[in-house]
Write a structure and sequence with these properties.
The protein is mainly alpha-helical. The chain has 15 helices and two strands. It has a two-stranded antiparallel sheet with strand order 1-2.
């Protein structure tokens, strides 16, 4: 569990800047989008906003959920996997199921940090003159207080279903691919030690492929967690820096929002968050499939895969770092417990 926590946190920290680029591409409220290719987006954010408040905006929030989340994940994954294998379940089905169960257990911890991280990444620096995200938090703590005060504590779990719909399939596919690739690699070299090169290749390819396949769900998750309730935007102007054109459009949204059931915590789901036409539908934040259909209708397949480049690189490097470090730390820890049975992902 400790090895998993260290590995996961290291991977998240290493690739946070690229995750910021992906978030900006997916949640860009401007039309046409301000951020295009991965390299130009990276350079633009760094030049205009810097490293600390720009590319690494929201890193504190990410770390709050990363370590405890990965500790819970790996502990649950290993326990679930061993119990199912001991009962004679099919290995492929076991790896998929264990990944589902582990990510669901960890989601209670990491979803609130994911909401804070995503909003701060989209916002960038405080009083950002280069990018109007609809949010303007001074810090992670200020974001937490503001969300709880203005939107209620439940808003920290906004997009919970969308996050689960993204992360459960991702974790299940990632570990199913990883376990099978590890098995094939060991058969190929005819040894249980496959070497650092194959360790990195199996881990990175498993994460990258799972990341690409789940990219449409990641787009829905990002937009669900970063969209602004139009009524709140009118009553709490300090939260955002909206140009006059955006404000006039928001007034049209506000009349619809007031007629909706407030228990739904309705948010706008559309191709350009906060700059969409007045007639855009208002959806429940948990409408994952409706969000997928709407994005496809307004943007096509390209909308589903916005930010797929950064997501592929991010999940590849993050998974490679996490799983390779996990295996390495487990082997090192075995030296301190020579009489105990060693644990392994595979």
């Amino acid at each position: 569990m400790l090895a998993g926590g260290i590995g996961g946190t290291s991977g998240d920290l290493l690739m946070h800047s690229l995750d910021t680029v992906k978030t900006r591409q997916q949640g860009d409220p401007h039309y046409p989008p301000k951020y295009g290719s991965m390299s130009s987006s990276y350079a633009t954010i760094f030049r205009q906003e810097g490293l600390r408040r720009g590319l690494y905006g929201g890193v504190e929030a990410a770390m709050l959920g990363s370590f405890p989340g990965t500790v819970i994940f790996f502990g649950t994954y290993e326990w679930s996997k061993r119990n199912m294998l001991d009962r004679g379940l099919n290995p492929s089905l076991t790896y998929l199921t264990a990944g589902f169960v582990a990510d669901f257990a960890a989601s209670i911890v990491y979803v609130p940090s994911e909401v804070l991280k995503t909003r701060l990444q989209l916002q960038g620096r405080y009083n950002n003159p280069y990018f109007n995200s609809g949010y303007n938090y001074r810090s992670t703590w200020d974001a937490c207080k503001t969300i709880a005060r203005q939107e209620g504590f439940g808003a920290l779990y906004s997009g919970y279903k969308a996050t689960i719909f993204r992360d459960l399939p991702f974790s299940a596919l990632q570990f199913a691919f990883y376990e099978q690739e590890q098995r094939l690699a060991k058969e190929w070299v005819n040894s249980s030690e496959i070497g650092l090169g194959l360790e990195v290749a199996t881990a990175a390819s498993a994460g990258g492929l799972a990341g690409v396949l789940t990219c449409p769900l990641d787009v829905v998750k990002t937009r669900t967690q970063t969209q602004v309730n139009p009524e709140e935007a009118q009553t709490q102007p300090s939260r955002s820096f909206q140009p006059e054109s955006s404000k006039s459009m928001s007034k049209g949204h506000s009349a619809k929002a007031r007629s909706a059931d407030p228990a739904l915590q309705a948010r706008l789901m559309h191709s350009g968050p906060r700059t969409v036409q007045v007639h855009a539908p208002v959806l429940d934040a948990s409408s994952v499939f409706t969000g997928l259909k709407l994005i496809y209708k307004t943007e096509g397949i390209a909308g589903w895969f916005r930010g797929v480049g950064p997501r592929f690189v991010w999940t590849s490097v993050q998974s490679g770092t996490m799983l390779v470090l996990y295996q390495y730390l487990l082997k090192q820890m075995q030296h301190f417990r020579p009489d105990s049975e060693g644990a392994s992902v595979v």
